[in-house]
């Protein structure tokens, strides 16, 4: 290889690396987005937006040590931004009805939890990520993750009440 | 059961995988990403020029139109030095929200018990409730004579109306919506509904509506945004880009097929589309301080710069690199968002407002700022519990500011 690499060649290499990364991670990213948003179309939009911004930054991002965490951070930020905006004066007044085992009722309850706490709950208990990794993704301390977990659980408890009693359980 | 165990157990029903086929378009992401790279360059380079211009008092972004001399731009009000927050009376209602205010800050209009079975309309004058009407209605604006506008739902259909001296008067023209009113009493809104809605203007509450003329490829379904003091109306519109399919490969609507822009409809009946600098689609949010504020499409805070346009001189300014920092006040339904720290743009500056602590204590400590007087000394909005507790009542809030 010569030292004189044409700019076009560099772009091609960069694009190929981007494509390889995205195609390898698309399913996992979509699952995280779906778990965060609870909606397939919204999940697709979150991933679409994330990989668009990822491409825009790819020449720099591809060199960072932990691309995976970085991309998850981008995805979660997209989600949090969407929750924060309320651009159309969205009112989150969907009623939480039905038993606590009903996914619709649980999703409605989760949507009422403040966004950062919601993200922590999803990343920890639905994506099964350890506290340290969630802290990295959210750019906060592990203590903050634990605190948000506690507050998020308390908010859920307030909405959903006690866990359902199962056969054999007291 | 500790918090971790409880959360893990209760969230278990949500575990799983998305069922449908993915609707993610990687080539599109690369195309859009490429555009973002160039836009970032544009924003950065232009930002430098803009900052220079802002410091010297004028910004020139109208290519080839106003190179010299500097355009005569309206002075922005000073960003107030301090504000105090207070709760507006709610005439005994559990919940009330401010929706709009006039240019002087003396008149405010809003709704009461919006989520209950007995909603109403409230009008405040100098901080006191002067009208309390038990009707199901939306209100969007009020002028310096205390005349409010909005829409009232009757038998499942919305009709445009004005509220004056506590009386509701339906506007001529049938189904529709009244979006804004200026101090001269000119009203703008829409006639018709859904795909048939047409931007409309009423010279007086008694006069028949004039419909936006078909011009410049502006479709009839454009959305009315706001009206300026001189009667110029801002209309948000979309048109199909030629040669681009309206449906994507995944069978879903192709957002790239549409161009989003803003048109000005002047009192003489002329219509002109605005061309924002660069390749930005400009979506107007509302008139304030003599300018038309707006941002890139989709009108989402944080995505694209917040711009403003001065209609008399054709001057563009960048107010902020992203919308998210603060809210643009005005009657438009676009551009508002709920924030835990209330803040608004005053000119090109940002006024951070103190939280109203009574609302915070009552669990309604997130804020939606709706209106500011022309001198930015009176600001009003609503304390809500969306991010903390949506069951909490809305609290109508007023901020009084001084230089």
Number of strands of chain B: 26
Determine the structural class of chain B based on helices, strands and strand pairing.
mainly beta
* Intertermini distance of chain B: 55 Å
CATH superfamily of chain B: Peptidase/esterase 'gauge' domain
Q: Give average pLDDT of chain A, whole number.
A: 75
* Stretches with pLDDT under 50, minimum 5 residues of chain B: 39-69, 298-302
CATH architecture label of the largest domain in chain A: Orthogonal Bundle
Series of H and E elements of chain A: HHHHHHH
Cα(first) to Cα(last) distance of chain A is 71 Å
Number of E-type strands of chain A: 0
**In percent, how much strand structure appears in the residues of chain B?**
35-45%
The helix/strand series of chain B, from N terminus to C terminus, equals HHEEEEEEEEEEEEEEEEEEEEEEEHEEE
Give the CATH level 1 class of the largest domain in chain A: Mainly Alpha
Write the CATH architecture name of chain B. 7 Propeller
Please explain how this structure is put together.
The complex is a heterodimer of chains A (170) and B (403). Chain A is built from seven helices and no strands. Chain A is mainly α. Chain A has two domains: 7-89, Rna Polymerase Sigma Factor, Chain: A (Orthogonal Bundle), CATH 1.10.1740; 91-163, Arc Repressor Mutant, subunit A (Orthogonal Bundle). Chain A starts with 6 loop residues before the first helix and ends in a 10-residue tail after the last helix. By secondary structure, chain B is mainly beta. Chain B has one domain (71-402): Methylamine Dehydrogenase, Chain H. Chain B is built from three helices and 26 strands. In chain B, strands 1-26-25-24 form a four-stranded antiparallel sheet. A four-stranded antiparallel sheet of chain B has the order 2-3-4-5, with no helix packed on it. In chain B, a hairpin with a 2-residue loop joins strand 8 (157-164) and strand 9 (167-170). Mean pLDDT of chain B is 80; it is low at 39-69 and 298-302. Chains A and B meet through helix 1, helix 2, helix 3, helix 4 and helix 5 of A and helix 1 and helix 2 of B.
């Amino acid at each position: 290889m010569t030292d004189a690499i044409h700019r076009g060649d560099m772009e091609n290499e960069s694009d190929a690396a981007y494509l390889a990364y995205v195609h390898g991670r698309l399913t996992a990213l979509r699952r995280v987005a779906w778990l965060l948003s609870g909606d397939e179309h919204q999940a697709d939009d979150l991933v679409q937006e994330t990989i668009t911004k990822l491409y825009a930054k790819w020449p720099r991002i591809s060199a960072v040590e932990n691309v995976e965490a970085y991309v998850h951070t981008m995805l979660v930020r997209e989600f949090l931004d969407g929750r924060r905006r309320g651009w159309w004066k969205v009112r989150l007044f969907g009623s939480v009805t039905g038993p606590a085992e009903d996914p619709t009722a649980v999703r409605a309850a989760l949507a009422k939890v403040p966004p950062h706490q919601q993200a922590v709950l999803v990343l920890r208990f639905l994506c099964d990520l350890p506290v340290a990794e969630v802290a990295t993704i959210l750019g906060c301390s592990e203590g903050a993750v634990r605190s948000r977990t506690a507050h998020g659980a308390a908010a859920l408890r307030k909405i959903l009440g006690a866990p359902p009693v199962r056969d054999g359980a007291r | 059961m500790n918090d971790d165990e409880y959360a893990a157990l209760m969230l278990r029903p949500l575990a799983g995988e998305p069922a449908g086929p993915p609707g993610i378009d990687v080539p599109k992401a690369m195309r859009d990403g490429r555009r973002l790279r160039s836009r970032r360059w544009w924003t950065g380079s232009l930002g430098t020029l803009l900052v220079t211009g802002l410091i010297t008092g004028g910004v020139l972004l109208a290519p080839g139109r106003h190179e010299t001399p500097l355009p005569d731009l309206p002075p922005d009000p000073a960003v107030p030095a301090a504000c105090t927050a207070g709760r507006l009376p709610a005439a005994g209602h559990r919940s009330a929200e401010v929706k709009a205010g006039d240019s002087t800050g003396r008149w405010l209009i809003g709704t009461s018990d919006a989520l209950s079975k007995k909603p109403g309309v409230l009008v405040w004058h100098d901080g006191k409730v002067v009208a309390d009407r038990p009707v199901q209605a939306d209100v969007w604006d009020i002028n310096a004579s205390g005349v409010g506008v909005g829409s009232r739902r009757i038998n499942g259909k919305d009709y445009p109306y004005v509220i004056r001296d506590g009386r509701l008067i339906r506007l001529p023209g049938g189904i529709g919506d009244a979006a804004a009113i200026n101090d001269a009493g000119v009203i703008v809104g829409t006639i018709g509904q859904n795909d048939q809605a047409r931007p409309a203007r009423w010279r007086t509450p008694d006069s028949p509506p004039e419909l936006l003329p078909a011009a410049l490829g502006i479709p009839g379904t454009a959305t009315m945004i706001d009206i300026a003091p001189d009667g110029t109306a801002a209309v948000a519109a979309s048109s199909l880009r030629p040669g681009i399919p309206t449906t994507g490969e995944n069978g879903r609507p192709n957002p790239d097929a549409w161009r989003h822009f803003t048109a000005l409809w002047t009192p003489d009946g002329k219509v002109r589309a605005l061309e924002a600098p660069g390749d930005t689609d400009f979506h107007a949010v509302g008139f304030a301080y003599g300018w038309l504020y707006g941002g890139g499409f989709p009108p989402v805070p944080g995505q694209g710069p917040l711009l403003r346009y001065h209609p008399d001189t054709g001057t563009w300014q960048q107010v902020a690199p992203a919308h998210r920092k603060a809210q643009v006040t005005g009657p438009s339904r676009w551009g508002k968002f709920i924030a835990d720290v209330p803040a608004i743009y005053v000119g090109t500056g940002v006024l951070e407002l103190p939280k109203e602590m009574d609302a915070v204590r009552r669990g309604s400590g997130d804020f939606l700022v709706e209106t500011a007087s022309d001198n930015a000394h009176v600001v009003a909005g609503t304390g809500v519990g969306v991010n903390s507790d949506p069951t909490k009542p809305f609290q109508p809030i007023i901020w009084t500011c001084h230089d």
